[in-house]
């Protein structure tokens, strides 16, 4: 593992990180079933093929990298990292991608499809869609933030995807810190990992509807959420219609106004200047249980990047299917 773009002086820390990851991989049941270099013999070019497709897509539209990182999160939190988020609905069953948390905002499906098509010609039925997504999320972090890490692989694809299961498992944008901590704990992720992973909101966009309650008629005593900078709120009101205006469109704004296509720790400085978009972002800076984590991440970008890599590997191991628990799809949208 190496954190590129951070210079040689961090190589010592990186070595320690490799050691730590090796130890944690041996002590965690779900991680133990996954393995770095899983496709070394069955499809040696697997990871290179995925990276090439991701680089090609992101060169045209870096926003797709944000979409892919988010897609991996949405996959792992619902039925584990089993590519259930990629399955299309079937007659009589609406799949996860139909849920309002995913439709219409989730993006990047075509990048995964393109990688899968290349892999099916190079090594048919060898590389799972769940692994493609995990690799692609890593490749997006490398392209957009210079953050590189080795992805343990060997996940299998599930055969079930149910729209309603999204509601019970994914945190909505209006959650407070206590609710976020509980939601991530149910997936085996710590408070620090939750704060670290929220740093992914340093790239990409949000629809106005995900936060407009904070800038229009917040409550009966405060027209605007007092945890938001009033100048920033005014700028957002300029770009977002009031929810009551029956506006036909739901515009998008960048989650990080400073560097929207750079995966970095600017997100945390923005929180400390009351410029978080979602309630679930800003609450991390205002809550006493997470405020110091936000400040530490704001101060030390290299440390945050290391923690991000580790936390993504852990997230990528949630309830994975191995052995005879799943299959390797021929098409990521359809079960075999
Ligand atoms: C902590 C709880 C979280 C909540 C409540 C949350 C919620 C949201 C919401 C509401 C959006 C905007 C969707 C839209 O309106 O278009 C969003 C975008 C995004 N989220 Fe999260 N999220 C959380 C954690 C995460 C995590 C753990 C990751 C990845 C590690 C992540 C990655 C992203 C990315 C990259 C975007 C931008 C997507 C794009 O531009 O297409 N989020 N999130
Ligand atoms: C409105 O929000 C503020 C800030 O969160 C809070 O202190 C106040 O109690 C709320 N007022 C009402 C009436 O809910």
TrEMBL record:
Residues the record marks as active site: 74
Main location (coarse class): secreted
CDD domains: secretory_peroxidase
Enzyme class: oxidoreductase
Binding site for Ca(2+) 2: 256, 264
Any one GO molecular-function label of the UniProt entry: heme binding
Enzyme Commission number(s) of this protein: 1.11.1.7
Residues of the signal peptide: 1-32
Enzymatic reactions: 2 a phenolic donor + H2O2 = 2 a phenolic radical donor + 2 H2O
Plant heme peroxidase family profile domain boundaries: 33-336
One biological process term in Gene Ontology: response to oxidative stress
Keyword field: Calcium, Disulfide bond, Glycoprotein, Heme, Hydrogen peroxide, Iron, Metal-binding, Oxidoreductase, Peroxidase, Secreted, Signal
Pfam (any one): peroxidase
Cofactor: Ca(2+); heme b
Cofactor note: Binds 2 calcium ions per subunit. Binds 1 heme b (iron(II)-protoporphyrin IX) group per subunit.
Site (Transition state stabilizer): 70
Task of the protein: Removal of H(2)O(2), oxidation of toxic reductants, biosynthesis and degradation of lignin, suberization, auxin catabolism, response to environmental stresses such as wounding, pathogen attack and oxidative stress. These functions might be dependent on each isozyme/isoform in each plant tissue.
Protein name: Peroxidase
Species, as recorded: Dorcoceras hygrometricum
């Amino acid at each position: 593992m190496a954190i590129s773009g951070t210079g040689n002086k961090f190589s010592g820390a990186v070595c320690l990180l490799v050691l730590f990851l090796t130890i944690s991989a041996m002590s965690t049941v779900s991680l133990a079933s996954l393995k770095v270099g899983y496709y070394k013999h069955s499809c040696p070019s697997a990871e290179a093929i995925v990276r090439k497709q991701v680089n090609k897509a992101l060169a045209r539209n870096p926003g797709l990298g944000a979409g892919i990182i988010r897609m991996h999160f949405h996959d792992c939190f619902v039925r584990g990292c089993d590519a259930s988020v990629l399955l299309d609905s079937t007659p009589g069953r609406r799949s996860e991608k139909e849920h309002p948390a995913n439709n219409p905002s989730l993006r990047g499906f075509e990048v995964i499809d393109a990688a899968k098509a290349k892999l099916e010609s190079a090594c048919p039925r060898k590389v799972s869609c769940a692994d493609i997504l995990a690799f692609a999320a890593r490749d997006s972090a490398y392209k957009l933030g210079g953050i590189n890490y080795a992805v343990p692989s060997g996940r299998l694809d599930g055969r079930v995807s149910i729209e309603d299961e999204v509601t019970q498992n994914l945190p909505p944008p209006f959650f407070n810190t206590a609710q976020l901590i509980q939601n991530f704990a149910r997936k085996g992720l710590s408070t620090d990992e939750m704060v670290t992973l929220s740093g992914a909101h340093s790239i990409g966009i949000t629809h106005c509807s995900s936060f407009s309650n904070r800038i229009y008629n917040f409550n009966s005593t405060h027209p605007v959420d007092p945890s938001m900078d009033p100048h920033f709120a005014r700028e957002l009101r300029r770009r977002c219609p009031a929810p009551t205006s029956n506006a036909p469109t739901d515009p998008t704004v960048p989650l990080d106004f400073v560097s929207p296509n750079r995966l970095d720790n600017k997100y945390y400085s923005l929180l400390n200047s009351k410029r978080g978009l979602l309630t679930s972002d800003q609450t991390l800076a205002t809550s006493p249980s997470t405020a110091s984590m936000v400040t530490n991440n704001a101060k030390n970008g290299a440390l945050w990047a290391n923690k991000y890599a580790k936390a993504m590997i852990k997230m990528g191991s949630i309830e994975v299917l191995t052995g005879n628990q799943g299959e390797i799809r021929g098409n990521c949208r359809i079960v075999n």
